[in-house]
Specification:
Strand 8 and strand 9 form a beta hairpin. About 45% of the residues are buried. By secondary structure, the protein is α+β, with helices and mostly antiparallel strands. It has two domains: about 300 residues, 3-Layer(aba) Sandwich (Aminopeptidase), CATH 3.40.630.10; about 120 residues, Alpha-Beta Plaits (2-Layer Sandwich).
Length: about 425
């Protein structure tokens, strides 16, 4: 690209930040809920976000459309209207009492980039679609059998059989089918019609998102290029089953202590996990829930039952499968040696998404063109980009430095960093 093109794009993006900042302030004010913001999937807050996006897109003269799940498509015409479009976007829902930037930043950056295109007189070769996606945070709002990322999966035709009925919205106490229908959209069309998006007719997908960990803060980098999205193996219903007994009268050698059995399991698993990391493997793991029944257990009682969870994530399916087998082996060992039955229960699977090297290299080229040095890092959280990737769409992600993590009220993205990330996104859109 010519230097004058790049400078014009940089200047125009910087000028678009006033409108973007105004958007962030307004949506926070409209969806603030106590200590944070709450935009329920297919609820009022999410709809407020979609309405605000549509209003800005109309100001920019973009074409507006939607699908049967309520996803919003805002199209900026390219030079060749028949060519496969390039899609950018993210989600507008949040976790309960979450932050203002997780998800929304990806949609707002797309609209800011379109505003910059208009100011700089830039028209990409193909249509550019800014997509506001429904219900990415499905894990916070739904229980029952579902595959997460409900909006993007609906658009791509990736719903499991009968998922519309097996997924239950806990906030509205309705099935996914009922929630979509109540919101004014068409679940029957999702179930019976071809998908709204044909992956073979999409040029690419790029998603800007705040980083959900501390790496960019630690490395003092405003942006990062995502190498891949970690998959997971999750044991959601682990139990350590021992025997309740008197805490003072039972000799240690006679005890079948479920609390100590669970503790030993987690310790031994951690040691193997740390060795995997020391050997250069990509892995994070988390026993997010550990609890006993306070009505049954007590200070002077040998613990008879502990319930816990185990979440393992990696860019490598091989490592995930190895660690799953390791967990099962440790559980069997403790069950035999302690007389405490460590039952991990069933596990769920999410496949890693190793984002395309061509798109990563193109994004690194864009960073250089925009005068930025970016680091490469894995995403520990799931994203809609993974769903596009799994359907064969060339996909990429940009992370924005964000202090204090995400899914909390203290998300702290700086507009200066958001501006740098939007420059890269705009370059990806302009050169697709």
């Amino acid at each position: 690209m010519k230097d004058n093109f790049e400078q014009a794009l940089i200047t125009a993006v910087e000028e678009s930040m006033e409108r973007a900042d105004q958007f962030f302030l307004e949506i926070e004010d409209k969806t603030k809920d106590g200590p944070g913001v709450t935009r329920v999937a297919w609820g009022e807050g999410e709809q407020i976000g979609h309405d605000m996006c549509e209003a800005w897109a109309k100001e920019l003269g973009m074409e507006i459309s939607g699908d049967s799940a309520g996803n919003l498509y805002m199209t900026f015409p390219g030079e060749d209207r028949e060519a496969p479009p390039f899609i950018v976007g993210s989600h507008m829902d949040t976790v309960p009492c979450g932050g203002n930037y997780d998800g929304a930043a990806g949609v707002i950056s797309g609209l800011a980039a379109i505003q910059a295109f208009q100011a700089a007189g830039i028209t990409p070769a193909q249509d550019t679609i800014v997509m506001a996606i429904r219900a990415e945070e499905a894990g916070s709002w739904f229980s029952g059998l579902h595959g997460g990322h409900l909006g993007s999966r609906a658009a791509l035709g990736r719903f499991m059989e009968d998922e519309l009925n097996t997924a239950h919205h806990n906030y509205f106490d309705k099935s996914l089918y009922e929630v979509i229908k109540t919101a004014g959209f068409d679940p029957d069309a999702i179930a019976n019609n071809p998908p709204h998006l044909n992956p073979q007719k999409i040029k690419g997908y790029c998603e800007l998102h705040i980083e959900q960990g501390p790496i960019l803060i630690a490395e003092n980098k405003p942006v990062g290029v995502v190498s891949g999205i970690r998959g997971n193996r999750r044991f959601r219903n682990c139990k350590a089953l021992g025997e309740y007994n008197h805490g003072g009268a039972t000799p240690q050698s006679f005890r079948k202590d479920a609390a100590l059995g669970a503790a030993e399991f987690l310790y031994k698993f951690e040691q193997v996990g740390l060795q995997t990391l020391a050997d250069g493997g990509d892995l994070v793991f988390n026993p997010g829930i550990i609890h006993t029944d306070p009505d049954v257990n007590g200070l002077s009682k040998v613990c008879g039952e502990v319930n816990f969870t185990l979440d393992m994530r990696s860019e490598s399916s091989e490592i995930l499968d190895t660690m799953r087998k390791t967990a099962e082996g440790i559980a069997a060992e403790i069950s035999e040696q302690r007389g405490v039955n460590v039952d991990l229960g069933e596990f769920s699977v999410s496949v890693p998404a190793a984002l395309q090297n061509d798109e990563k290299h193109r994004m690194l080229k864009g960073c250089a063109a925009m005068g930025l040095e970016a680091t490469s890092l894995a995403s520990g959280g799931g994203h809609d980009a993974a769903e596009f990737h799994h359907e064969g769409v060339p996909s990429s992600m940009i992370f924005i430095r964000n202090e204090n993590g995400s899914h909390n009220t203290d998300e702290a993205m700086e507009m200066e960093d958001f501006c740098e990330g939007t420059k890269i996104l705009a370059w990806m859109m302009a050169t697709a």
